[in-house]
Amino acid sequence: MLKTIELSIFDEVNLFFDNAADRLDINPGLREMLKRPWRELLVQVPVRMDKGEVQVFSGSRVQHNSARGPYKGGVRYHPLADLDEVRALASLMTWKTALVNLPYGGAKGGVQVDPGQLPLTELNRLTRRYTLNIEHLIGPNRDIPAPDWAPTPRRWPG
Question: Rounded to two decimals, what is the model's pTM?
Answer without folding.
Answer: 0.88
